[in-house]
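Hi all, posting the design record for the shared folder.

TITLE: backbone redesign
STEP: 1 of 1
STRUCTURE INPUT:
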């Protein structure tokens, strides 16, 4: 089978197409033929060597496919079922497992830019009704992260106000989920065009942070006494404004760090306002399945920026690296 791999040297320019033997499912394992994958910023960090991982390694973590074989003892899945692998293999429910080295796809475990993959039966979730393979491939990281940021970390309620940063995959899922829950949504972006598209999706307010560098105060004013929840994806470049925007006792769900991980500002606002700051490491299988039920019930459709053929997966990664996308960048295996 064909795979795209980091073989002996990190860097997007060093990715190589390789051949590997097709795996066979062992006891309680399921063999999946990949139909589509989607990309996350984490994939660029892995490929770029920002995470110290052993090579060779197949990158990317999010995919959807069809079951083509099952091992002895598999009961809940059968050949022909459409499935998605969960990001943290083995995290089925409850709090995050102890230890630093979690079994995450796309590093340290091999990822999904490969024609076939074999996973434990409980490491897979069924595709929600009504979604294409490409749409389903967007769910395992971006969808589950947004779901947990709002409903597990922040316990979002109807009438709450949510501040969402940008228009990448996590952010747009958060916008869609927040509106389903009856929340008011403020979106930030550096592009007026992207803000218009976010409003068309249901965002109640948009703030261009290039025109309004004190966007935290602007969001706080819109909300009155501050927003109930912030979906934080920027990190050191945005957290200060997020803490200004959030209300006393509000929640900041820290999902990503697109602008860095080392803040240089005074964190006094965190304690002064009794803000609950909580990291989001995607989520467990139980949350994934709960999210999928909501997606099916409401016929929610993920936002796709572009779809590349598997043979042009490097082009898809370059599109992600450019930063101009609105929604998810995906790969189709045909």
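Okay, here is what came back for every position:
SEQUENCE:
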């Amino acid at each position: 089978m064909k795979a795209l791999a980091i073989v002996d040297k990190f860097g997007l320019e060093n990715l190589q197409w390789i051949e590997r033997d097709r795996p066979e499912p062992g006891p309680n394992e399921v063999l999946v033929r990949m139909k589509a994958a989607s990309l996350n910023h984490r994939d660029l960090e892995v490929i770029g060597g920002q995470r110290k991982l052993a090579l060779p390694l197949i990158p990317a973590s999010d995919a959807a496919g069809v079951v083509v074989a099952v091992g002895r003892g598999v009961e809940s899945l059968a050949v022909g079922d459409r499935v998605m692998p969960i990001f943290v293999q083995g995290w089925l429910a409850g709090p995050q497992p102890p230890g630093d080295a979690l079994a995450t796809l796309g590093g340290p475990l091999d990822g999904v830019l490969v024609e076939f993959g074999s996973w434990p039966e409980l490491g897979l979730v069924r595709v929600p009704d009504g979604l294409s393979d490409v749409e389903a491939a967007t769910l395992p990281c971006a969808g589950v992260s947004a779901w947990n940021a709002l409903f597990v970390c922040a316990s979002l309620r109807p009438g709450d106000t949510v501040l969402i940063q940008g228009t990448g995959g996590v952010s747009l899922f958060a916008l869609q989920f927040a509106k389903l829950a009856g929340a008011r949504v403020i979106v930030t972006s550096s592009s007026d065009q992207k803000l218009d598209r976010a409003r068309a999706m249901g965002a109640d307010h948009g703030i261009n942070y290039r025109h309004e560098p004190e966007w935290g105060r602007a969001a706080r004013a819109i909300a009155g006494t501050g927003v109930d929840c912030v979906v934080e994806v920027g990190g050191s470049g945005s957290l200060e404004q997020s803490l200004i925007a959030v209300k006393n006792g509000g929640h900041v769900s820290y999902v990503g760090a697109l602008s860095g991980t080392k803040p240089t500002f005074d964190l006094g606002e965190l304690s002064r306002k009794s803000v609950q700051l909580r990291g989001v490491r995607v989520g467990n299988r139980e949350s994934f399945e709960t999210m999928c039920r909501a997606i099916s019930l409401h016929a929610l459709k993920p936002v796709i920026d572009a779809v590349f053929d598997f043979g042009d997966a490097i082009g898809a990664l370059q599109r992600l690296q450019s930063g101009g996308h609105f929604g998810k960048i995906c790969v189709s295996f045909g």
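COMMENT: The radius of gyration is 20 Å.
Let me know if anyone wants the other runs.
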